[in-house]
What we know:
heterodimer; A: 3 domains; B: mainly alpha; 12 helices; about 0% strand
Amino acid sequence: MSAELSQSSGAxxxxxxxxxxxxxxxxxxxxIAATPPQVEKNIETTATPRISISNLSGKVIVKGWDRSQVHxxxxxxxxxxxxxxxxxPPQGPVDKVHFTTYIIDHSTPGEAATVDYTLQIPAxxxxxxxxxxxxxxxxxxxxxxxxxxxxGNISVADAGGHLAVRSVGGNIEIIRPSGRVEAYSxxxxxxxxxxxxxxxxxxxxxxNIVYEGDFVPGGDYILSDYSGNMDIVCPPTASFELNAKTxxxxxxxxxxxxxRHSSAPPISSANSLFGTYSTGKATLELTSFSGTIHIRQx
Amino acid sequence: MIExxxxxxxxPSCREFQASLExxxxxxxxxxxxxxxxxxxxxxxxxxxxxxxxxxxxxxxxPAPRVWSNIRARLETEGFxxxxxxxxxxxxxxxxxxxxxxxxxxxxxxIVFAIFLLSPGDLYHQSKPGSAPAxxxxxxxxxxxxxxxANLVRTVQEMEKSYKTREAYLDPAAKQTYARxxxxxxxxxxxxxxxxxxxxxxxxxRRYLMQAYSEKADVLASALExxxx
Lengths: 298, 229
C-alpha cells in the first residue's frame, strides 16, 4: 500500500515537473525566436581593399587593423532585414567588399530596419559608408574614407587618407586626421581634435565649430559657419595668418596679431580681423554670418 | 551505374544521339531509332523527356527581392548600368574628373555656383533689378540678383515643389531631419536677403546667400532621391 502511494506521489511529481518544464519552454522558445539574427564572418582581402557599407539605420563601427582580413559582425533587428555581402573577385584575396542592408519584406516599418555593424578592416582600406540614421564610428583607417549620414552622428579618429564626411543633421567629430579633411553639416556641429593635416575644410549652417590643436606649417584651414559659434583653441606655439570675417557676428581673439606686411596693427573692425601670429606659417580662414568667432590659446 | 559504364564506352551512334538530344527534346523530329535500340540512351531520353514535361507544370515563382538586388549589383559591377549614387557623391563626381551619369540639373547647379564663386564682381554688374523671383520669405523684398543667381534660385524653387509632393512618403525620422535642415537654410536665406537689401555690396552676405541656396539644392536633391539609404 505504502509502495503504491509512493509510486503515485512520484508520478504526480514527474507530471508537475513536466508541466513546469513545458511552461518554461514556451517563453524560452519565444525568447530565442525574438533574439536578433547575428552574423559573424571573416573575409581574406588584399592589404588595400575597397570596402563599402550601405546601411539603412543602426550603428556602424569600423576599426582598422594590421591584418589583410575583414572581420564583420552584424546584428539585424528583424528577420525581415538582411545583409548582402558581395566580394570581388570571387576567388582569392578580395579587393572589393560591399555590405548592403536590404528589407526583404517592404511592409517592415522603417524603425525596425536596423542593422548594427562592427568591422575590423585592413588599415590600408579605402572605406565608404552610407548610414542615414545611426551612429558611425571609424578608427585607424589609412586609406580614403567617405562617410554620409542624414541624421546620425559621425566620429572618425586617426584617419590617414582623404576624409570626406557629410551629414544633414548629425554632429561630426574628427580626431587626429592626417590626410585632407572635408566635413559638411547643415544642423550638426563640427569638432576637430588635434588635426595633423595640412588641408582642412569644415562647413556647417546652424551648428558650432570647435577646433582644438595646432596647425601644420604651410597648411590651409577653412572653417565656415552661419549662425553657430566658432571656437579655435590652439597652443601659444602656433604660427598662422588669420583672416576672420563675419557679416553680423563678432570676432574675439586673444593672440597678439601683427600685420603681415608692416609693423602696423592688424586690420580689425567689429566683425573682421586680419593679421599674423608668429611667422604666419599656416593660413586660417574663418567666416561666420551671425555667430561669434573665438580664437584663443590653449 | 549503367550510365557510368555507357559513358566510358560511347559508340559513334550514341555520341550522335546525345549531340542531337536538344533537337529531339524540343519536339523537332520523332523518337530516334537509336533510343529504341540502346537501353542507356533510351533511359536517358525518357528521363529528360519526363523532366521536360514535368517542368511545364511547375508554377512560376517570383524570386525574392534580394535576388533581384544581387542581380542588379552584379550587373552594376560588370558595367551594364550604374546604380543611383548618393547625392554627395554625384556632386563630387565632376571633381573626380570622371564623366558620370550625374543628372544634368545637378551639374548645372555646380557650374552655376562655380561661375558665381569665380567671378562675383563681373556677374554683379550684369544684375537686372527686379529679376529675382519671389523667394522663401515673401515678407522680405528680394535683393537684386544676377541672372545666374536668379536661375539658381528658380531651380531650387522647382526642386522644392517636387520635394513637397514627395515629402509625405518619407519616413518620419528622415522627414524631420530634412525639415530641420531646410528650415535652417530658409532662415539663412531670409537673413542674407535682408542683409543684401541693406548692403547690396556686401560680398560676404552674397556668398552666404548663394552658399545657402547651393546647400538647399544639396538637401533637396538628397531628399528627392532618398530611398531609405
